[in-house]
Amino acid sequence: MTTTNILITVVVIVLLWVIVMYNKLVGLRFHAKEALSDIDVQMKRRFDLIPNLVETVKGYAAHEKGVLENVTKARASVAGASGSPLDRDKAENMLSGTLKTLFAVAENYPDLKANANFIELQQELSDTENKIQASRRFYNSTVMDLNTAIATFPTNVMASTFGFQEEKFFETSNDAEKQPVQVKF
Amino acid sequence: MSIYTQRASNIRKTWLLFTFFLITVIGIGYVFSGLYGNSSILVVAVFFSSITSIISYWYSDKIVLGMYRAQLVSLKEAPELYRIVENLAITAGLPTPTIYIIPDLAPNAFATGRDPKHSVIAVTQGLLNKMDQTELEAVIAHEMSHIGNRDMLLSTAAVILVGFVSLLADFFSRSVFWGGIRGRDDDRGGNAILMIIGITLSILAPIAAILIQLAISRRRESLADTSGSLLTRYPEGMISALQKIAADTTPMRTANNTTAHLLFENPFENKEKTPFLHKLFMTHPPIQERIAALKAMKI
Q: Order of strands, edge to edge, in the sheet holding B98-102?
């Protein structure tokens, strides 16, 4: 094998490696992007269920105007918030909080609790909260794969050359959420 | 061990076992084709082994569901089960599998299908009756992990290799019986020794192949336990489910040996201590070992 042949082979191998690594990073980045927008899908599902819930509750618990208004206001602020689910986290968590209060208050109204529509909405919303959690967890696992690839050798050489950046994990911004739950009757 | 190192260990062991398997099979093929003085039997054996395995892999969902008399269920018919499966699919980043219920009272479950898009999860009525929410989630997470880790594809590859070795051994023993082996003319003396090697191999090779395949199957089951715990972030759920299943003595009516390897737990297992030789022939690690591995996991 002549020196030129060896040189050409080495160059070809390096080129192939660059292509494979670059494509792998691009793939991981798109996985993370898709996972992020999937969180939006679940959030939207919750967003759409709420007006129906507010109407059903109004019919039975008209006195609880304050609670219902809080829910509607929180929903409006979520609609107004812009950016990725990571940026909107605070507004979305507030909406979660108002919904929890609404369901707690509904415990005082047995007629409301027996209403078939309300029961179904309660189940749907509870399932939606689970789906939001599931999509956040999946997003975190895609970010872990992406960040690990960016940080480990030899892919990190590729990553810094082409400007791949580590993404942020989904973390709770609300300190109150990190405290153990107090149950008071 | 953390959950990640445990997962990495299982994947590594799968690679090692498979490489060892391939080398062994190539070696066996080499010996047999040498005995025939002709390598065309290798082609024939590969062809037949592949065809049957690929067909059963491609139609795995229909075939197995038929055997177990499984009933398709939708969101309306089994809302809790459907939601558990759907949410775990979202966590795993997989399409939601089609869901079936098997009318059998022993608690068990399986997953099948040629790829995640055509995947199927089936649970027995017994599982639904006996497990609570977290335990059911753990079992479904285990099955979902089989789909995500492409275990159907992997075990089909293993089965093809086993079939290949068995066919070679079969051809050889038939040729010996009907007297069709022609050695090379300049090799008279060595012929007898080669024949003895050949006959021994034709008995031992299929057994060796099956042992390796079962070892691979056990690694994949451990991996599914670990990956499932990564999905739920709650190994206690699976520990609890395994303990309940270990205590349950209901025999499975529709189980049989050919599909035992697919199930969540081996329906034919003796639940107390398993002797080493018995362990070698099991498709799943013994339940006590699975529980111990989950308990040791730091998550």
A: B71-73, B98-102, B120-124, B109-112
Q: Which amino acid is at B286?
A: P
Q: Rounded to whole angstroms, how far apart are CA atoms B211 and B283?
A: 10
- Which residues on chain A place their C-beta less than 8 Å from a C-beta of chain B? 31, 35, 38, 42, 123, 127, 130-131, 134-135, 137-138, 141-142
**How far off is chain A from B142, nearest CA to CA, in Å?**
16
| Mean pLDDT of chain B, nearest integer | 83
Residue B292 has pLDDT above 70, yes or no: yes
- A37/chain B closest Cα distance in angstroms: 13
Host H or E run for residue B102: strand B98-102
Name the nearest CA neighbour of A134 among B2, B252, B96: B96
Inspect the interface and report whether the beta carbons of A130 and B87 lie closer than 8 Å.
yes
Q: What is the pLDDT of residues A143-179, one digit of tens each?
A: 998 999 899 888 888 888 888 888 888 877 666 666 7
Domain extent, residue B175, equals 20-58+153-210
* CA-based nearest distance B282→chain A, Å: 33
Asked if residue B171 belongs to a domain, the reply is yes
In the predicted structure, residue A89 carries a pLDDT above the cut 90: no
| Residue B223 covered by a domain | no
Active site residue B135: no
The model's pLDDT over A27-51, given as tens digits with 9 standing for 90+, comes to 889 988 988 988 989 999 998 988 8
Q: Do B93 and A138 touch (CB under 8 A)?
A: yes
- How many structural domains comprise chain B? 1
